[in-house]
Structure formats: structure tokens, C-alpha cells
Amino acid sequence: MSKLKFILSGGGTGGHIYPAIAIANELKLRYPDADFLFVGAKGRMEMEKVPSAGYEIEGLWISGIQRKLVSKSNLLFPFKLLSSLWKAKKIVNKFKPNVVIGTGGFASGPLLYMANAKGIPTLIQEQNSFPGITNKLLSKKAKKICVAYDGLDRFFPKNKIIKTGNPVRQDLLAIDGKREEALSHFELDKTKKNVLVLGGSLGARRINQLVEKELDFLEKEGVQLIWQTGKLYYEQYKYHSEKPMVQTHAFLNRMDLAYAAADIIISRAGASSVSELCIVGKPTIFIPSPNVSEDHQTKNAQAIVGENAAIMVKESELDDQFETVFSELISNKNKQSSLGGNMKQLALVNATSDIVDEVEKLIKNNLK
Ligand SMILES: CC(=O)N[C@H]1[C@@H](OP(=O)(O)OP(=O)(O)OC[C@H]2O[C@@H](n3ccc(=O)[nH]c3=O)[C@H](O)[C@@H]2O)O[C@H](CO)[C@@H](O)[C@@H]1O
């Protein structure tokens, strides 16, 4: 067989980038000689995160459509789309991939569209319980659609769907032996409980406001915080690190160690975050973002809460409920271990390998 070539495309937020990196890493293990190219959106997070994971990336001039209809970005959208389609065509013609894998986000639209038009097999990986517009459009021509939730046949052709779960980075699969390393990495006081606050890959304004408001309460509870503010909000909140019980981070590059150090986690409910938290199996309070399409983070969290495996507090209920919910959880060891245990039961640990099995089938069918 001649050297295999793969294009992976997706981005905009970490939720679309890390699954692509996990899939590429698994493909690389199976095909060490293969060539890989990532295609993302210029100026977005993937342009930094993909090269630091060791892969090349090309950026398209593309963005999503804003909800506010009349905006400068929306007026430019037709031009961006045309320019991206043209560049995507050039990339596909030059690189000649055997398979193209799309992990969602607007960058994958033009690239997979062009690959489909040229008859190159495409596979989509949909992380959420409700798909975004890009994946919905691409699903018509895609050969396979790997999903993490039931019920996606409402949006995608049923015969193409395979439930694999979301790919999770390899280093998150084995955090159990890493607690000591994690405590010294974050220079934590070993006598205290650690609360990890996660706002998703971009950070969450409302969670940051909550944590700031509750700092005195959390100090009285005797915990220390690893608080991921998000890059956008870091300057505003970093001064809180002056308190010995608080450390603020714009972005955590060692999520494995952050999860390993945590006793309790407060988190948004983006799809990969939820999948990772199931693997990690620590007591979690979800605060879903209400600002995403079809309120899908609430549904992501609900799928876990419905199995008695986590707690959810909606943004609108935070002021009334957060302190009570937190105090009850931190003081109840049995509840902590039952939530963590139940969560682990929901983990789909073979997701990446199952997705790559599907990629292999596409390669084989195409070579026939
Ligand atoms: C606001 C928004 O549009 N959110 C969407 C976005 O979330 P978002 O980009 O936050 O994605 P996820 O919650 O799915 O994943 C976050 C990823 O970033 C990593 N991470 C996070 C923080 C950090 O400091 N370091 C780090 O490495 C996590 O380990 C995880 O792998 O994509 C998800 C997947 O399509 C959707 O479900 C979310 O609704």
C-alpha cells in the first residue's frame, strides 16, 4: 500500500480541536509513515494548539454566521466562504488525502464539501447531543458519522451513524497514579481539598463571576482552587491569585494533572469536557452554558445527571443554590464517591480506536 494521507479539519474551540488530535494520534500509531494535514480557521485556537501537538495546519479565512444578522462579519461571510472553498479545493488537490475527517466547527465545512465533491471518503465526528449546522450540512455526503449520544438519527441519515463516544486524549485515560505529581506540579497544600474550576476551552464569564463572588465562602469551606478563567478573562481575574488558596490560569495545558489533583470539579458541559469527566470519574457540578445552539450543554449534562452521576446547577439558579449544593457535596464523602463511581460507568473509553476502525474501513473500501 502506498503512503496513506489524512486531512483532519475542525476547530474554532477546543471541543472540535482535541478530538481531531486524538484521532490523528491513533492513526499515527497504526500508520507511522502516514502524512497528516490539519485544516482550521485563521486566527482561531487550532492555529496554535495543532502545531504544539506536532501537526501541520493550514488556515482558511472563514468564520461562523453571527446570531445578530446585520454585522460586519456576516456581510463578509459570502466572500469568506468563496475564498475558503477555493483554498480548500487547492489543498485537497495538492495533498490528495485517502480520507478526510471532520470534527465540526465552521472550518471543516468548505474542506469536507470539496473532498465530497471530489469523491474522497469523509467521516464526521459529532461530539454533541445536538449537531451544529456544519455537520448537519456535511452529513448528506459523508460516508460515516461517529456520534456520542443516542437519538442523532433525527438529524443524520440513520444508516451512516455509529455510536463510538467522543475521542479523549491518551494522557487523560490514566490519571489514577498521578495525584502526587499533580500536587507538586500545581504546588498545592496537601492538607486541603482541591476544587478545579473549568470554563471550557474558552473560559466562561458566568462561572468566573460566580467564583469571584463565592471566594470568601469557598475559603471558609477550607478548599483551594485551580481556577481556569479562559484566555479572554484572565487579565480581569488573575489578581485573585494573591490569595494563598487561589490559583488562576488562562488555560491549562496539563489537563491530566488538573484532573488528577481535583477532589471536586465545577465545569461547563461541553461535549469533550463531559466525556473526559466520565473517564476521570470525580464528583462534578455542571454549570452548562445556556448560550449554545439548542441548549445542547444542558442536554449533555442532563444525560449524566439522569444517571445519578453528577449534579447540575443552571446559571439562573446559581445565586440561590450554589452554596447549599457545594456545602452538601464537600461534606458528604459517600455522595462524592457514588457520583464519581457512577460517572465512570458512563465512560466510553474505546472511542478513538473505534473511530479509527471506521476510518480504516473507508480506506479499504476505497482501495478496492
Ligand atoms: C461555548 C461553546 O461553543 N462551547 C462548545 C465547545 O466547547 P469547548 O470548546 O469548551 O469544548 P469541550 O468542553 O467539548 O472541550 C474542551 C476541551 O478543552 C480542553 N481544555 C479546556 C480547558 C483548559 O484549560 N485546557 C484544556 O485543555 C478540555 O480538556 C477539553 O478537551 O465545543 C463543544 C464540542 O462541540 C460544545 O459541546 C460546546 O457547547
TrEMBL record:
<comment type="pathway">
    <text>Cell wall biogenesis; peptidoglycan biosynthesis.</text>
</comment>
<feature type="binding site">
    <location>
        <begin position="13"/>
        <end position="15"/>
    </location>
    <ligand>
        <name>UDP-N-acetyl-alpha-D-glucosamine</name>
    </ligand>
</feature>
<dbReference type="InterPro" id="IPR007235">
    <property type="entry name" value="Glyco_trans_28_C"/>
</dbReference>
<feature type="domain" description="Glycosyl transferase family 28 C-terminal">
    <location>
        <begin position="195"/>
        <end position="338"/>
    </location>
</feature>
<comment type="function">
    <text>Cell wall formation. Catalyzes the transfer of a GlcNAc subunit on undecaprenyl-pyrophosphoryl-MurNAc-pentapeptide (lipid intermediate I) to form undecaprenyl-pyrophosphoryl-MurNAc-(pentapeptide)GlcNAc (lipid intermediate II).</text>
</comment>
<keyword id="KW-0328">Glycosyltransferase</keyword>
<keyword id="KW-0808">Transferase</keyword>
<keyword id="KW-0131">Cell cycle</keyword>
<keyword id="KW-0961">Cell wall biogenesis/degradation</keyword>
<keyword id="KW-0133">Cell shape</keyword>
<dbReference type="Pfam" id="PF03033">
    <property type="entry name" value="Glyco_transf_28"/>
</dbReference>
<feature type="binding site">
    <location>
        <position position="128"/>
    </location>
    <ligand>
        <name>UDP-N-acetyl-alpha-D-glucosamine</name>
    </ligand>
</feature>
<comment type="similarity">
    <text>Belongs to the glycosyltransferase 28 family. MurG subfamily.</text>
</comment>
<keyword id="KW-1003">Cell membrane</keyword>
<feature type="binding site">
    <location>
        <position position="297"/>
    </location>
    <ligand>
        <name>UDP-N-acetyl-alpha-D-glucosamine</name>
    </ligand>
</feature>
<keyword id="KW-0573">Peptidoglycan synthesis</keyword>
<dbReference type="InterPro" id="IPR004276">
    <property type="entry name" value="GlycoTrans_28_N"/>
</dbReference>
<dbReference type="InterPro" id="IPR006009">
    <property type="entry name" value="GlcNAc_MurG"/>
</dbReference>
<dbReference type="GO" id="GO:0016757">
    <property type="term" value="F:glycosyltransferase activity"/>
</dbReference>
<keyword id="KW-0472">Membrane</keyword>
<feature type="binding site">
    <location>
        <position position="169"/>
    </location>
    <ligand>
        <name>UDP-N-acetyl-alpha-D-glucosamine</name>
    </ligand>
</feature>
<dbReference type="Pfam" id="PF04101">
    <property type="entry name" value="Glyco_tran_28_C"/>
</dbReference>
<feature type="binding site">
    <location>
        <position position="201"/>
    </location>
    <ligand>
        <name>UDP-N-acetyl-alpha-D-glucosamine</name>
    </ligand>
</feature>
<protein>
    <recommendedName>
        <fullName>UDP-N-acetylglucosamine--N-acetylmuramyl-(pentapeptide) pyrophosphoryl-undecaprenol N-acetylglucosamine transferase</fullName>
        <ecNumber>2.4.1.227</ecNumber>
    </recommendedName>
</protein>
<keyword id="KW-0132">Cell division</keyword>
<feature type="domain" description="Glycosyltransferase family 28 N-terminal">
    <location>
        <begin position="6"/>
        <end position="146"/>
    </location>
</feature>
